[in-house]
Write a structure and sequence with these properties.
11 strands, alpha/beta, 10 helices
Length: 286
């Protein structure tokens, strides 16, 4: 079973939920798909080992064959190629690797080469009994989705995979949740939390993925998030209270289920509830 933990905005506690859920289940995979700023390992401290580079293909031009017709620059929708008076200039970091420029070049002057944009790392720890996989986008790179997609190829279909998604509702979020069995949206009971939850719900509904909501810092703000969920018939899976003990553990980088073990059963119960929405999976961890 594949469970994505997402949120309409950053700072709602998405990573906290993902880490504590994976630790509560045990024998699970945790995939940190927030590749622009992976931080699950801040709570786990695993010794991560590099597994592979993530590469995309970018064009290279043989100036000896190029006739400066400009068809490649006309085709590129991302302005990764510019035709100058005496040469063709490439902007590899703008290239999305579609290969269209290769196809339209009448002189066959364009070929492709690989360029690294990130890495995939993995770590395990006997104490925590989970496997952490992390994708990291190289500094200065713009395309997170290829890193996310390659990270997800490491999913073990025989166990539970908990995916920590990027915040927001843009392309990286869609890449991280599109193939999930269930999506947990983490929000907070504030006007900002509600606004971004509404945006996230709209995206997840269009993707046709079953989903529910966790209200983090419950007790802070007002009840408009709960009222919205009631009106929209969205299940509220869990309410994590706004209490000092959890905040102190978070500030120290400690997953709160490690010091508040009763919450492990709360997360396992939540997972059992999720399994009812996708009963065909039937997992022993639930």
């Amino acid at each position: 079973m594949k469970i994505a933990i997402a949120s309409g905005k950053g700072g709602t506690g998405k990573t906290t939920v993902a880490v504590n859920l994976a630790l509560s289940l045990g024998n699970a995979q945790l995939l940190d798909c927030d590749v622009e700023e992976p931080n699950c390992n801040l709570f786990l401290g695993f010794d991560l080992k590099k597994q592979e580079d993530v590469t995309i293909t970018v064009p290279q031009v043989d100036s000896g064959k190029c006739s400066l017709c400009g068809k490649c620059a006309e085709f590129c929708q991302y302005n990764a190629i510019a035709k100058l008076s005496d040469s063709v200039m490439l902007f590899p970091k703008l290239c999305h690797g579609c290969g269209g420029c290769v196809l339209v070049c009448p002189e066959k002057a364009i070929t492709e080469k690989k360029r690294s944009i990130g890495v995939i790392e993995k770590g395990t720890n006997e104490q925590f009994n989970i496997e952490l996989l992390q994708g990291t986008l190289n500094i200065g790179e713009a395309m997170a989705s290829p890193v996310i997609r390659q990270l997800q190829t490491h999913m073990d279909e025989s166990t539970v995979a908990v995916v920590d998604s990027p915040p927001g509702t843009a392309c990286p979020v869609i890449a991280s949740v599109a193939d999930m069995d269930y999506c947990v949206l983490v929000t907070e009971p504030t006007p900002f939390g509600l606004n971004d939850l509404v945006l996230a719900v709209d995206v997840i509904r269009q993707l046709g993925i079953p989903f529910g909501v966790i209200i983090n810092r419950h007790g802070l703000g007002d009840n408009r998030v709960e009222e919205y969920c009631r009106v929209e018939s969205i299940p509220v899976l869990m309410k994590i209270p706004y209490i000092r003990e959890i905040a102190v553990l978070y500030s120290k980088g400690i997953p709160f289920v490690e010091h508040m073990p009763a919450w492990k059963e709360n997360f396992r119960e939540m997972c059992r509830d999720i399994c009812e929405f996708i009963p065909y999976r039937g997992l022993s961890q639930c």
